[in-house]
Design a protein that fits this description.
Strand order of the largest sheet: 2-8-7-6-5-3-4
Keywords: Pyridoxal phosphate
CATH class of the largest domain: Alpha Beta
Family: Belongs to the SHMT family.
Number of helices: 17
Number of strands: 12
Cofactor: pyridoxal 5'-phosphate
Low-confidence stretches: 432-436
CATH architecture of the largest domain: 3-Layer(aba) Sandwich
InterPro entries: PyrdxlP-dep_Trfase, PyrdxlP-dep_Trfase_major, PyrdxlP-dep_Trfase_small, Ser_HO-MeTrfase-like, SHMT-like_dom
Largest sheet: 7 strands, mixed
Structural class: alpha/beta
CATH topology of the largest domain: Aspartate Aminotransferase, domain 2
Shape: globular
Protein name: Serine hydroxymethyltransferase-like domain-containing protein
Length: 436
């Protein structure tokens, strides 16, 4: 083995170590990310990460890949039952690797044949950047629904659009959005067109809020299916799910999934089950309501300190994120983000947020801060730290130490690993005899 190879591996491990240490000291406020608990993450490093699992019927004669037999029980006996409970849907598919792959699967399974129309949301109203292009790549015709402002759909126009184009699928892909869809009103507008269009709601950014109960449930509102990524407001690993109460739709989705996805990453679905257990154990309604309250309160305190977020007239947010045009306060977004990064606070800079006319803006989220133990009561302090960094009111290294102290003083929300029976098993998993 060459010295250069050993040196490269050492450098790689040192980089991973620095990443892990830094993560414990920083406040990650990127809305597309969340903190997965150590309990859930432990599944990602075990033998299940190397195995295929196809025998979902548990047929004793169909274990063509028998090495997955034990780990598969986690998916079938923990992950799926808990997600059926949380989604309140009998049929849950956990075999998509990301929100965008779930989108592709739904468009392929429910979008119809070549040339069939699919309606999705215009980017100016928060629709996902990829939906229309992906639909066209699948041979579908894309039509976009829009509205009178960056935060609303025109429901009368939506009814007319559905009646005119008679789509096979209306894919409600609210992505860049401060406020959730009024699912009941939107579904009612689609049904008023008198067509047989199926309605799918992409809840990637809203999943923790929907499953926690803080915002209305799309399936209760009449949608045919819903799904999305599991690592934004829901504190799971990077993965995705699709849920429906319709057995026929579930079968269509399942058939497409078998043809489009082979290795669905069994270790990740095991981690997803453990994350779902922690979510249920830690007051999901309280967590989801606290996310919305924290975002709104943080917005108000940022405004008081000279850094007002968008949509003040609507309370800044109805979900987990805030958008801030820092240039209006005298600091361009790139400079503001760099100063925040140096102060131990991670945010996005985006140029495609609805209503911002292409201006770079900061995007801040509160889901991960709440996952790592902060509460609504901490939002005034967070606003102090953010504005002190953006306006360079204190040295970055001083703010970074305050951020690290705040992290160290808070107990992470996800704590099932502290339960004695669970802690004992975790010790066994990390013992030397299991390391090999």
């Amino acid at each position: 083995m060459s010295d250069r190879l050993i040196s490269d591996v050492v450098s790689a491990l040192e980089a991973l170590t620095r990443q892990e240490r830094e993560a414990q000291r920083r406040l990650n406020m990127i809305p597309s990310e969340n903190h997965t608990s150590p309990l859930a993450r432990i599944a990602l490093g075990l033998d299940s990460g190397h195995r295929y699992f196809f025998n979902t019927s548990n047929d004793p004669n169909s274990w063509n890949f028998p090495a997955a037999r034990e780990a598969s029980r986690v998916e079938t006996e923990l992950t799926l039952p808990l997600l059926r409970r949380l989604t309140r849907a009998e049929h849950v598919n956990v075999r998509t690797l990301s929100g965008l792959q779930a989108m592709a699967l739904v468009l392929s399974a429910l979008g119809g044949g070549p040339g069939t129309t699919v309606i999705s949301i215009h980017a100016d109203q928060g629709g996902h950047y990829a939906t229309a292009g992906l639909a066209r790549r699948l041979g579908l015709t894309s039509v976009l629904a829009s509205g009178p402002d960056p935060h609303s759909l025109d429901l009368d126009a939506l009814t007319t659009l559905v009646a005119r184009h008679r789509p096979s699928l209306v894919y409600l892909d609210l992505s860049h959005a401060l406020f959730p869809l009024d699912a009941e009103a939107v579904v009612a507008a689609i049904r008023a067109a008198g067509t047989s269009a199926r309605v799918h709601v992409d809840i990637s950014h809203w999943m923790g809020l929907v499953l926690g109960g803080a915002i209305p449930h799309p399936l209760d509102a009449g949608a045919d299916s819903m799904g999305g990524s599991t690592h934004k407001t829901f504190p799971g690993p990077q993965h995705a799910l699709i849920a429906t109460r319709d057995a026929h739709l579930a079968a269509e989705i399942g058939l497409a999934q078998q043809e489009m996805i082979s290795n669905h990453h069994l270790a990740v679905t095991c981690a997803l089950g453990l994350a779902a257990a922690e979510f249920l154990a830690a007051d999901p309604l309280g967590y989801s309501r606290q996310i919305i309250a924290s975002a709104r309160l943080l917005g108000a305190h940022l405004a008081e300190r000279g850094l007002p977020p968008e949509a003040a007239e609507r309370g800044y947010s109805g979900g987990h994120q805030l958008w801030v045009d820092s240039a209006r306060a005298g600091v361009d977004a790139d400079t503001a983000a760099r100063r925040l990064d140096e102060a131990g606070i991670s945010v996005n800079v985006l140029t495609d947020l609805p209503g911002m006319q292409g201006r770079p803006a900061l995007r801040l989220g509160v889901a991960e801060p709440l996952s790592v133990g902060l509460t609504t009561d901490d939002m005034p302090l967070v606003a102090d730290l953010v504005t002190a960094a953006v306006f360079a009111r204190r040295p970055a290294d001083v703010i970074a130490e305050h951020v690290a102290a705040l992290r160290a003083a808070r107990v992470p929300r996800w704590r099932l690993a502290d339960q004695p029976q669970i802690a004992t098993i975790l010790r066994r998993l990390t013992a030397q005899e299991y390391a090999a």
